[in-house]
Amino acid sequence: MGDTKVVPITYEHSMENYNDVALITTTKTVKSEPKISRKFTKKLLLDILNFPFMFIHKNFQPGDIKGSALTIFASTVGVGILSLPYAVNISGLYQGIIIFILGIIVSLYTCQLLVLASEKTGEFTYELIGKALYGPKMKTFAEINMIINNYGFAVAYIILLKDLIPNCLKMLGVVNATATNNYLWGCLVCILIIYPLTLKKKISALRYTSLLSCIACIYLSIVIAYGFFTTRANDLNSKIKEAPPAEISTYSIFTASSYVVFSFTCQNNVIPIYQELQQRNTKRGFQFLLRGLLMVFVLYLIVGIFGFLTFYDKYHPITNFPVQILEADYGEDNIPIIIASIAIAITLICGTPLVFQPCRIATLSILFQKEPTKKQYFFIVTGLVFSALGLALATPNIGYALNIIGTISSPIVCFILPCMYYIKAFPGKFTRYDLLIAYAVLVFMTFIGVSGFVIFLMDSFF
């Protein structure tokens, strides 16, 4: 009787003899076999679905070099990747590659400046480093620019969603004008999903959105490269040889640079990642930055070059090239592109509330000296979300948003402030080699930002 373990099985009627108990026990054992099988199948399915996350968790521990490199990779790759073929198109193949190379060099350099400034001051937030070096006014200035940058990201995300979801439906064969209305989908997604999630102070359920976005972008790069080699299988060499090599003009250089600057935005995440680094020192900090940004660079090259080579001869003039590559003429029955569109749409929906979060925190920090009331919190979040929705609906396409962010807030946050921090943290004669480079990057990126914004205004209104 001890081996059968009938104690957990309870029944309302009494069991008066051994035969009854044995019969019930045997019957119970026979019925439980399918349940064990179902549990095993369910566990196996969950293990398969969780494998990518478990593999990354096991091999890329938080705080080690590989884990930190993966984190900087995930925090850099975003919606800007969709516009990189357009950036190559307006600048030409080889000129576009040069702009990409300059983009990663300057981005890596300024990230290293932030690590050095953080180590020098002992502070581990963007704003507090500014306060330690320049005082409270710099803290406020940094917060304002972080608000503008993240708010711009949110607007860009909503613009992309309002265009991407209808495009997915069209590729699936939906032709109804109301069902594919951009403005309708922008409002629905923002009101029903993004706004309620942004109201929550903690969005722990969306903590894997960066990883999902990363996977979606890697899949996108594979699909775009595969699309080029399959659609252009008969004329690969001629497509590369006949591709426009360069477009030397003020418009092409500064516009393409603004897209690349936006795409390499990661500086606001560098300091928190560096803070969690195991055996923290500047050398290990430089190592994870180099590895992470090199992965980003390779991914960007694949998407930018192959997306451009696939379609550059289908759109004339060059400015008619789609601003985001998923709107290119891949065909309605292209299942991989449909999957990529849906995957990126899902990660954007999950990621937009997270983009609003630092914007909300910085706004509340500037407006209120103490913890805001529930009413104040509600009105601030509501104002941020619905003003962003209004701007997104009024903006024709994501190119306008990326251009503005890439010429105003991104250069300040990603390039100008890191140089200013380093110059203040390590004072000396400007002729000193390291300071000379910092001053040169500071002047150059300021010039790029101002010139790009002026050209954007002239192109838009004149």
UniProtKB/TrEMBL annotation:
What keywords are annotated for this sequence in UniProt? Membrane, Transmembrane, Transmembrane helix
Q: Report the residue ranges that make up the Amino acid transporter transmembrane domain in this protein.
A: 68-457
This protein's GO cellular component annotations are: membrane
Tell me the compartments it is located in. Answer: Membrane
GO function terms (MF aspect): L-amino acid transmembrane transporter activity
Does this entry carry the keyword Transcription regulation? no
Membrane spanning stretches: 67-87, 93-117, 138-160, 180-199, 211-229, 288-312, 335-356, 377-394, 400-423, 435-458
Database matches in PANTHER family: AMINO ACID TRANSPORTER, AMINO ACID TRANSPORTER PROTEIN
Write the protein's name. Answer: Amino acid transporter transmembrane domain-containing protein
Organism name: Stentor coeruleus
